[in-house]
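cache lookup: miss for this entity combination. No prior model stored, computing from scratch. Input as submitted by user K.M.:
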Amino acid sequence: MSAAGDPATILVVEDDLSLNAALMATLKAAGFRPVSAKTGAEGMRWLVHYRPELVLLDLGLPDRDGLGVIRDIRAAGATPIVVLSARGAEAVKVAALDLGADDYLSKPFGVEELLARVRAGLRHGVQARGSTPVVRTGGLEVDLGRRLVRVDGEGVKLSPKEYDVLAELALNLGQPVSHRALLRAVWGREQTEVQYLRVYVGQLRRRLRSAGALVLSEQGVGYRLEER
Amino acid sequence: MSPSLNTPSFPAAPPPKAVGYAVSLVLVAVATSAAVLADRVLGASDVALIFVLPVVIAAVGFGLGPSMTAAAAGALAFNFLLLEPRYTFRIAEAENAWGFGLLSLTAAIVSSVAAQARRRAVEAVERADQAMAIHALARALVGASGRADIAAAAAEALARLFGAPAVVLVEGDEGLEVSASAGGAEPGGADLEAARWAAAAGTPTHADAYPVEAATFDFWPMRTPTRRQAVVGLRLADMPGGRPDQPGHWVEIVTGHLATALARDDYAARATATGLEIERERLKADLLAAVSHDLRTPLSTILLTLQSLRRFGAAHDPADRRELLDLAETETRRLSGLVSNLLDMGRLEAGAVVVRPEAVAPADLIAAARAQAAVALAGRQVVEDVADGALELWADVSLAGSALGNVLENAGKYAPEGSTVRISFRRDGGEGVIEVEDEGAGFPGPVEPLFAKFARGAPGDGRPPGVGLGLSIARGFLEAQGGRIEAANRPGAAGAQVRLVLPLAREAVA
């Protein structure tokens, strides 16, 4: 997927042999170069060896805590991480995002969902290196350099806080941002009530009119600006 | 506490009156004899002092009446035997009249002071006794657990304090009921009616009075901080000294202790119930987490393989296509195994396991179990060692096979690929023992907790697939047919050793 056209390397860290094999075959068929690891230790080894463009990481590993693996990958670099976890385990997802994971997939997931998250993760990895100052999705345009927001070419007036919330989501286009991360980025502290955040997001959606539907709630985790 | 009933402390009984008078007269007689002897050497006024002694002794020992009697008797004897004119009761000199008057006055003063001292002494003993009774109550309540124990301690304290039959009623699931009695209390129907009335009205009732005139007990109601009602009753008419004026004081002290102890018991019961509830909820959450992980992982694989085949059908090379199909099949079997485990657990818990034992060859049982555990055992070398091949077990093939299958699945899950799993059979007395040994890490800690539901070998992070029902089901199935299961780490080598013990078929034993 990189500019030269050779396939992006994706490290799959999944202890379940069947799911691991299914992921490998699917990613290969979709044109990626997958690398398989069955334990956290093996994953860290391949991370150094293959320098993958993205890591698909199962949080339930036999040899160590998946959250610890996230910490180690982050300590080694900015490689995007998409976490695989069970639906309903919201607290773990939030912890994973807070530790630096970029996105998550809830089991069971389908091929389209998997590929969409992998592509978003790869793009984010590219952006992290040279960020574009203008983010576009659907009819929404956020000019991060000049703090301007347009919907269908028409300027939208936002309060400073509403803009900050939108800018944080736009920086992570297509990926979830946890409540805590938003509170920290916009208010500079995490103690502020999540309820407070809901009020701002509600106002933001109204002001964005037709583009308001792009701001998705991730139940129990945070918000995501949908990529179109 | 029972001896206290023999020596009730409230009120202290005075010595019998007749004895006091008799002893006083004897004392006077002794004093008179001494005076007659002394009269030969001493003057009359000195001799008179001798008669003060019985007065003082009687006053201190028996109170005013006997001491006045001693004074009168002494004065008469002195007058008759020692005063001129002798052998008459006439008093010739004013000096002698003085003597008699002073003797009587001494009797009155000494006896009143002595009586007061005696009353104080008696009261001090009483108070010490009462304090002891309360102390004993407090001590008994510390050790008491449960309403019956607490009520019994309070009833005994009341009986000891008052020397009267006492009864304690505590509100239970079916209203107010007699929880304890002491001092031979046998409350009748009228008494229970009075007790209920006292509890309902929240005011004490008296025996033989409104609202229940046939009641023989006085009742005092109370309510604990936990809103539980209780009533204490005393049959005060049975007290040796009759009804005391103010029994309420001591009753209140006892009910105070009673209320505190009952409330503590209630809180303890609530804490236990809350703890159980939390434990149940935790188990439920564990099950949900385990099931969600272990159902979703195979489901993910199945969904992914099928969608992948549809979307990239042509892009997959033939080997990958075949592998994906195999994966979907394997995972479907795994799901099915998991679901039957959950159903088995449900059957065990509902007590709905039907056992149909028959004579079965160990080799057949092992073969059935290996088929069940084929997926988990893939990549492990399985060695069978059936020493007593001719013997037959007395077992339900399906249940015992499933139990052994679960054990083999565990061995496959926890033992590394390429290692050896050894299944052996041998006879041990009237029983057959099937032993499964693997070369995994063995059990991490105590083995017994692993037989609990949803227990897994490695907690938290490393989660080999499974809900943690395997050993629990194996034990349930074996015990249902008179067998048992034992697990330990292999002696002298790494790995687990699980033994399934089943009875031998009768022909084999004979």
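stored under new cache key. The first helix of chain A runs from residue 17 to 29.
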